[in-house]
Design brief:
Blueprint (H helix, E strand, L loop, with lengths): L16 E2 L2 E2 L27 E5 L12 E5 L11 E4 L19 E5 L8 E6 L12 E5 L10 E3 L14 E5 L8 E5 L5 E8 L5 E7 L16 E5 L8 E7 L8 E6 L1 E2 L2 E2 L5 E3 L4 E5 L8 E6 L19 E8 L2 E8 L19 E5 L8 E6 L12 E5 L13 E3 L19 E5 L8 E6 L1 H4 L2 E5 L12 E4 L20
Antiparallel strand pairs: 1-2, 3-4, 4-5, 6-7, 7-8, 8-9, 10-11, 11-12, 12-13, 14-15, 15-16, 16-19, 17-18, 20-21, 21-22, 22-23, 24-25, 25-26, 26-27, 28-29, 29-30, 30-31
Length: 493
């Protein structure tokens, strides 16, 4: 599912809507390719694994070169003891760590070579390619019985020079339903490249095509194109659909818009695209258990821009929109904010409710549950410390009346404490990482002034609990804390 990476998050409170265009700096992750959210398994042990990045980490003295960290699941969850920390200086990883590459700026997983192990697509959207500054690079790292070891292949830009920031958005799924993993790749333009039929071990794809949804084209100076790509089967036909977020061109207003592109036997169809509610961050999962993937989009902005312009389809403090899937695609939509039902908290300007979200079945009842973050929530007078909210699925959809939960670092049993600009919830992940069939919660934060950290909150089979919780710091994960590595600001989904 997935999720945009906002860089320089220490200044995120100043992010606003200006001139009709969102100013959030963003790149993306992928989403699972079915109505029921799939887990990543890079070492083939049947237990879910978690991959996160530190895209602005120093590597061998190079600022912003970037690293990724794979944390392997176990019966006791994830910890820093069972991990792999990789960069472009790791043996086998394509490229070389250089200043500003942002290795790990986008992530997506699937079994691309069909060997039974999930593989990881890694974007380096600011990679310099020849004389092309910010040309961008993309690599696929192969899974194995040992997990991600660094062995991988380069996926070169097929149209280098015609756009920039190759690999700034990624989404994996089976868009044509042939049983092989496909990969959608974004860049600074409105052209999305789709690699079909998986990849050979040498990096040769089964095929390649392009789609051009009605979003703004861009350039290196104004790298519009897709803001986010999210994959999931909305209409239940066994083919993965793609949700494309960008700045729309239909009305000329340039507001943020999502488009649903259905998968077909011939791949993704732009001609059958449908307009959805706005929201940069999107996930797809079956919340009401009817066999169709439901689309959840987070619009974390407030109702007006800094200059007072009214923002359509918004709510004070942010909101999420749940569009329920049907056999014909997206159906009815329900919007949720912190003033809805018994959703914890109160909608306040600047909370950024809907900044990030993810789906997973926490209690094993067959309904996907939803976690939503508001990383700029103020708690007890502490500015931008952040919190996350858990809403449970049911036969009638997301349940906002009962069973809701919220967690902050001041919650009893959660490691750490509320501190200014912690941004607890800058990214969130629901996945079964203990192999008990229930999704556990992992929360990223901007801990320690941008070093970043992960907080693990397990499911007890019924709900998320703090019993057995733990924090994983950047340094414990092998990430240099020179500068602001932003460890945990982006998860692969």
């Amino acid at each position: 599912m997935h999720k945009p990476l906002r860089l320089a998050l220490a200044t995120a409170t100043a992010a606003a809507l200006t001139g009709g265009l969102l100013t959030f700096a963003a790149t993306t992750a992928s989403a699972a390719d079915s109505a029921r959210v799939a887990k990543a398994d890079f070492n083939g042990d049947g237990t879910g694994d978690v991959v996160t990045s530190a895209p602005t980490a120093y590597v061998s003295g190079h600022k912003g070169a970037g690293q990724i960290v794979a944390l392997y699941g176990s019966a006791s969850g994830i910890s820093s003891a069972k991990r792999a920390t990789l960069s472009q200086n790791t043996a086998g990883v394509p490229g070389t760590a250089e200043t500003g590459d942002m290795f790990g700026g986008a992530l997506a997983y699937a079994d691309f070579n069909g060997d039974g192990y999930d593989d990881l697509a890694v974007g380096s959207p600011r990679e310099k390619v020849g004389t092309d500054t910010d040309g961008g690079a993309l690599a696929i790292l192969w899974g194995s019985a040992s997990g991600l070891t660094g062995k991988g292949v380069d996926v070169p830009d097929p149209a280098a020079g015609s756009h920039d920031r190759w690999g700034k958005n990624l989404a994996a799924g089976d868009f044509d339903g042939d049983g092989r993993a496909d990969l959608a790749v974004g860049n600074s333009s409105h052209t999305i490249y789709v690699y079909k039929g998986g990849f050979s071990n040498s990096g040769t794809p089964g095929g390649r095509t392009t789609v051009k949804p009605p979003i703004m084209n861009g350039s290196n100076d104004s790298p519009d194109g897709p803001i986010n790509l999210t994959a999931g089967d909305v209409n239940g036909d066994g083919r993965t659909d793609l949700i494309v977020d960008g700045y729309e061109t239909r009305t000329g207003n340039g507001w943020n818009t999502n488009y649903w592109l259905p998968g077909t036997t011939n791949g993704l169809s732009v001609s059958s695209a449908k307009v959805l509610k706005s929201g940069i961050v999107t996930g797809v999962g079956d919340i009401n258990g009817d066999g169709f993937g439901d689309i959840v989009s987070g619009a974390a902005w407030d109702t007006r821009t800094e200059d007072g312009t009214a923002v359509p389809d918004s709510a004070k403090g942010g909101r999420v929109a749940i569009t329920y899937g049907t056999a014909s695609g997206p159906g009815t939509t329900k919007s949720v904010n912190q003033n809805t039902g018994n959703v914890p908290g109160t909608s306040e300007t600047g909370d950024h409710f809907g900044w990030d979200l993810d789906l997973g079945d926490i209690n094993g009842d067959g309904y996907q549950d939803l976690v939503v973050s508001s990383p700029m929530e103020d708690i007890g007078g502490v500015t931008d410390t952040g919190q996350v909210t858990v809403l449970y699925g049911s036969a009638t959809g997301v349940n906002t009346a009962s069973g809701t939960q919220s967690f902050a670092q001041s919650t009893a049993g959660v490691p750490g404490s509320d501190e200014k600009t912690d941004l607890f919830g800058v990214d969130v992940k629901l996945d079964d990482i203990t192999h008990d069939g229930k999704a556990d919660l992992v929360v990223g934060s901007y801990e320690n002034g941008g070093d970043g950290a992960l907080t693990y909150l397990p499911s007890n089979g019924t709900k998320i609990t703090t019993t057995g919780s733990r924090a994983i710091s950047a340094s414990a994960a092998g990430v240099s804390t020179t500068g602001n590595p932003q460890f945990g600001t982006l998860f692969a989904d």
